[in-house]
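Hi everyone, sorry if this is the wrong subforum. Our group has a chain we'd like a structural model of before ordering constructs, and none of us has done structure prediction before. Sequence below.
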Amino acid sequence: MTEGKLPSFDAESLMSLVRQKSVESRTQLTQIIIDLFDHQSAVLSERQRTLMFSILQSIINEIEVSVRQAVAGRLALMDDVPRDIISKLANDEIRVAFPVLSKSGIYVTRI
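Answer:
Right subforum, don't worry. Here is the predicted structure as tokens:
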């Protein structure tokens, strides 16, 4: 997603992205969430992680294939991703599904 630099945002800007329905806003929101997982994972509370997974699940079909592919690559390396998100990505087109099918221990052990 972003290379070495955390995105700048606040709660109000995130809520604004959640309310918007454009592909661009969904993509930006997804990138922020993945960047948080990449750079702040150790300090995220369980509630925050659950909320971010919930947002991803609700918008995953509304983002471009290239973004879904990047999301799949990142989530495939995590061990606490909800089964329904992993399953959805694993059943997407092959370039999205491949990282999940080849790298995710969750998919192999939980599906």
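For your construct planning: The chain has seven helices and no strands. Residues 11-110 form one domain.
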